[in-house]
Amino acid sequence: MKSNNITYLLSLVPGKQSLGTYRFLPIFFCIGGVMEWIMINARIGKETFYDVYRRKQSEREYEKKIADGLIVLNEPSSK
């Protein structure tokens, strides 16, 4: 029953003769564009997905520089 319903829905998409399975590409292209727009513009709290990504990437680079010895942390001297 479900297979028949899915087959019917897929048959509603035009271009089967000329494009075959590639007729679904514009649909997935649009879905990808909407996802990208949401990741750039939708704020959860005060941050977008890319704000979090840039911050995490910066933290990873900083930790790598510390591990490589390029940055030396000053420890407070005991008096």
TrEMBL record:
The keyword Membrane applies. The chain crosses the membrane at residues 20-40. Pfam families: UPF0640. Keywords: Membrane, Transmembrane, Transmembrane helix. This is Small integral membrane protein 4. The lineage of its organism: Eukaryota, Metazoa, Chordata, Craniata, Vertebrata.
